[in-house]
Design a protein that fits this description.
Blueprint lengths: L2 H7 L3 H18 L32 E8 L4 H4 L16 H4 L23 E4 L4 E4 L3 H5 L4 E8 L5 H10 L9 H9 L9 E7 L26 E2 L18 H22 L2 H23 L7 H7 L9 H13 L4 E7 L7 H25 L6 E6 L3 E2 L17 E2 L3 E6 L7 E3 L1 E2 L6 E3 L2 E2 H11 L9 E3 L2 E3 L15
Parallel strand pairs: 1-7, 1-8, 4-12, 4-15, 5-6, 5-7
Antiparallel strand pairs: 2-3, 4-11, 8-11, 9-10, 13-14, 16-17
Length: 488
Amino acid sequence: MNPLLERQVDLTRRQFFGRGAMGLGTAALSSLLEKELHAAPASASKRFGGLPELPHFAPKAKRVIYLLQNGAPPHVDMFDYKPGLEKLRGEQIPDSVHKNQRLSTMTAGQKDKKVLPAFAPFRQHGKSGRWISDLLPHTAGVADDLCFIHSMHTTQVNHAPAITFFLTGAEQPGRPSLGAWTSYGLGSATQDFPAFVVMTSRDKEASCGQIFYDFYWGNGFLPSKYQGVQFRGSGSPVLYLNDPAGMSRAVRREVLDGVKELNELKHREFGDPEILTRIAQYEMAYRMQASVPELADFSKEPKSVLEMYGPDVTRQGSFAYNCLMARRLAERGVRHVQLFHAGWDHHRNLSTQFAIQCKDTDQPSAALVKDLKQRGLLDDTLVIWGGEFGRTPFCQGNIDDKKTWGRDHHPYAFTIWMAGGGVKPGISYGASDEFAFNAVQDPVHVHDFQATVLHLLGIDHERLTYKFQGRYFRLTDVHGKVVKGIIA
């Protein structure tokens, strides 16, 4: 017998299963092809990809827009109203309250922990009577649409590990992000855009040095097709959207078909799922050549909508611009949109930068909620606003020198808000103590937050798993409970 043929017949067990994956790979590949190239089921127009058993139950939200405020907004200055602190201004926070808890190295050795009350007055707003800082008039205007969680707490006191923990369920980089998990489990509602899109912005003054690490939106050990696609803050949102000079769309299609056939041959030989990812990314890039320019064209947006988002809305790379892009992505079927905005790290510039940061983010955040609501999208779009932790109720540095007022990182109690997507509007959940220092009523841990977000998307967080290195991993690790008190 021909030795080459004999070797093919005498397959090892590993080779058999590796090559046997071709059938599954072909089935998966069929979902990546353009709709007109195969007979798709009736439901294909609603979802592409995802696990067949998901959602586990009827979802309240179809998509997520997460407005992550990188650097940690100060809860005591914005949403966590503590009128008693004004009477305690300059007094030491009792040891029985702070309990020598771990802080960052910037205040770990600071003996004075003198109370610094809210930077600006608070007022009640809406029928719900929510207390909100005067520096957030636009957010105050949508108070009855928001669900405030005042009892968030985490374990991390430094930015990168804390953000990584919020988004991946672990402090160390390497695990899939929230957006990657949702796109892996639920797939996409569109073929023209990625299921998971990321945009970043920062304060114009560049007042802090927070870095946007790409593992914040990484796929971890999931196939790389689930990583977030970052849209750029200048020029074309995605590079290389235009075909090279002299290449028509027909020629481009022929080239991609030829490359796809070569990749399919390799997949039949090796069964590597990353080859399918490569095919999928080529196809997505081809479709985005038409969809992204239309997405970024605001010329058809009514003037009233542009004005609602504020004066920065047409400045590419601004938070306002990204918020409007998020709404346009949501209505086009993108499953998870993640906005990062840096500039909240107020260690020595609370008195100068904090009000600027509020002004830059207040109007666009509220406009996004109003815009989604006007279009009938808020009911099934979960909007999340918050940082990786809060900031200390005591002054970092000398409380007698207002020019250098600051607040250090504070993981023990802070506030986030949610809107739409099945959460109760116009409520406050949980509470911190009288110093806004510790979560004392209905505390919500990071894993609880993650479990709740997945639940609103119709996912049982204990059942969405992925086997890696012999262990089944999940976003919430081995923790997390759904916060049922905020679910409508």
